[in-house]
Design goal:
Strand content of chain A: over 45%
Largest interface: A-B, 28 and 26 residues
Largest sheet of chain B: 6 strands, mixed
Oligomer: heterodimer
Order of helices and strands of chain B: EEEEEEEEEEE
Distance between the termini of chain A: 38 Å
Number of strands of chain A: 11
Radius of gyration of chain A: 13 Å
Shape of chain A: globular
Helix content of chain A: under 10%
Strand content of chain B: over 45%
Structural class of chain B: mainly beta
């Protein structure tokens, strides 16, 4: 069966520090991969998605970047965190177009930038 | 620019009654709509979906209705149970991107 791993579960970082969140998927090949963020009091905002190794689409210009160095690995990064980067970050995957089953989400990372 | 809108931030329903969660969208290119359920500090879990070529899809206690002309969909939960208490997100696909609303917090009281 397919599983998605996302870590760490919680993270507290000072403003200006770098960020690296990692997500891996097991049990499937060539998944579509996604990074979402839920800021306090807001909905789920799509940040990046990837349909293949090295292919990254950015939905919202901001202080973050994403990379997909391997088929089932998706990394979210920042060189210098801002206070506004605080939020609940979710990695997700899908097969094909994702229409019938939707996206499968990880358990999320709660990031607090202080 | 919020293309998927859930205008009711919260809803309270008695156990056994019907819960109706509403969602509006603006993008005519959306071709598939989904509902997710989310508990605090967890990832959302998929509930039910509907293609834009259909107007109704049912799965057990959950039914989703789509009105394309009004750009409106709704999720009906019958009968509502206390375990249904969670935040419900409406979402819509355009290409590979799944766009979410801000969610409606449902509380089912005994």
């Amino acid at each position: 069966s397919q599983t998605i791993h996302q870590w760490p579960a919680t993270l507290v970082q000072p403003v200006g520090s770098p960020l690296s969140l990692e997500c891996t998927v097991e049990g499937t090949s060539n998944p579509n991969l996604y990074w979402y963020r839920q800021a306090a009091g807001r909905g789920l905002q799509l940040l990046f998605y990837s349909v293949g190794i090295g292919q990254i689409s950015s939905e919202v210009p901001q202080n973050l970047s994403a990379s997909r160095p391997q088929d089932r690995q998706f990394i979210l990064s920042s060189k210098k965190l801002l206070l506004s980067d605080s939020g609940f970050y979710l990695c997700a995957w899908s097969t094909g177009t994702g229409r019938n089953e939707g996206l499968f989400f990880g358990s999320g990372t709660q990031l607090s930038v202080l | 620019d919020q293309q998927v809108k859930q205008n009711s931030p919260s809803l309270s329903v008695q156990e056994g009654r019907i819960s109706i969660l509403n969602c509006d969208y603006t993008n005519s290119m959306f071709d598939y709509f989904l509902w997710y359920k989310k508990y605090p500090a967890e990832g959302p879990t998929f509930l039910i979906s509907i293609s834009s070529i259909k107007d109704k899809n049912e799965d057990g206690r959950f039914t989703v209705f789509l009105n394309k002309s009004a750009k409106h969909l709704s999720l009906h939960i019958v009968p509502s149970q206390p375990g249904d208490s969670a935040v419900y997100f409406c979402a819509a696909f355009s290409g590979y991107a799944l766009n979410f609303g801000k969610g409606t917090s449902l509380l089912v009281t005994p």
